[in-house]
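pls ignore typos typing on phone
guanosine-5'-monophosphate + seq
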Amino acid sequence: MLKLGRTLIDTRTLDEGIARLAAEVDRDQAGRPALLVGILKGSVFFLCDLAKRLKTPVSLDFLQVSSYGSGTKSSGNVRLVRDLTTDVAGKDVIIVEDIVDTGRTLQKIIEILGTRHPKSVKICALLQKRIPGNDDVPIDYLGFPIEDVFVVGYGLDHAEAFRNLPYIAVLEPDGDGSPAPA
Ligand code: 5GP
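k done
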């Protein structure tokens, strides 16, 4: 069994990090509009807080991919399950992602959007796990690098639970000796 463990990033620290990211995006966009593409469902809280902080004129759209199912390890098999409703051609697109682990999800999304002739594609990720091999993921705006642990809260789930925690916490074995689910 898994249980909610220690707090990794508290609400105030999240707020400060997101304010910093918004300032970076505003600086780069210099008043030019951007399309924020949120990756459902994990990025929803982050995207809303980021959008509210931005002075850049933004429109919003969402896409959904599936790769994790209900486990805690990426399957590596990333499928598009819900597409955008907006034409990205000629637009500055900023992909808003909750967490980068192996980077496969972002790779797939960049591949999909790249064929649709956006003016530019940038990546804004709240969290990135420090794992060997994912440091070449081209993240333009990063909130927080984190250790290689499974986290929940602030949009991130485990089997759909914990998304509405207002902070990021580590999911840990509950210590009763039973193995964690794969
Ligand atoms: P990647 O494709 O980079 O390996 O995985 C990225 C996706 O896997 C994220 O969008 C997120 O949905 C999920 N993910 C990766 N690490 C975690 C984690 O620690 N906690 C949760 N809840 N989801 C994660």
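Helices lie at 11-29, 44-53, 104-114. The pocket of guanosine-5'-monophosphate is lined by residues 39, 42, 67-68, 74, 97-105, 150-152, 156-158 (CB under 6 Å). more later
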